[in-house]
Design goal:
The chain has helices spanning 2-5, 12-32, 45-62, 66-69, 84-101, 127-140, 160-168; strands at residues 70-76, 107-110, 115-121, 147-152. With 169 residues, the protein is of the alpha+beta class. This is GGDEF domain-containing protein.
């Protein structure tokens, strides 16, 4: 607004109009904000953090340990040069593969342009499940194949921040 008036004082009505428009626009953006990408159906990192916090709060309430009951399956695509659209299409492919293997209430998140994770029960994070994820991903990403590994969750809720930070860094 300052540039539009080039050093002149704008009228009260003009400032009020800009403020109202800004407030309405930012409110609309907040209402449209989702915990999930509508194209890929993958959760945001913020939603992942919230879900992990809920698991730790529930474990405290139940007298259990999150690390005994849950873990993370992580998928990392190899570096690929390409356009943002290509990266989004790869995310869709990963989402389809992970939702095929984990069709339940597991949180599947998009951590970085190349990294994804699934928060799942430890009994679902076995070798046959990892093999199935790997097979499905290799059908789309032939060479080099994506890296798939298990990440254990820490016993302490404060330490899970370090795990998520390491995965998103």
């Amino acid at each position: 607004m300052e540039r539009a008036f080039d050093g002149l004082e704008p009228s009260f009505a003009m400032v009020r109009g800009v403020a109202v428009a800004w407030a309405e626009t930012s409110r609309g953006l907040q209402l449209e904000t989702s915990c999930e990408d509508p194209l890929t159906q993958l959760s945001t990192v913020a939603h992942l953090r919230h879900s992990l916090d809920a698991l730790y709060r529930g474990a405290i309430r139940d007298g259990t340990t999150v690390s005994d009951r849950h873990g993370l399956l992580v998928v990392e695509l190899h570096r690929q040069s390409g356009h943002a659209l290509e990266s989004t299409l790869h995310a869709v492919d990963v989402s389809v593969a992970l939702r095929t293997v984990f069709p339940g209430d597991e949180v599947i998140a998009h951590l970085t342009p190349r990294r994804f994770c699934v928060v799942a029960d430890r009994d679902r994070l076995d070798q046959p499940t990892m093999n199935l994820v790997t097979i499905l991903l290799r059908r789309t990403f032939e060479s080099p194949p994506p890296r798939v590994w298990l990440e254990m969750l820490p016993a302490d809720a404060q330490d899970v921040t370090w795990v998520v930070d390491a995965l998103t860094g």
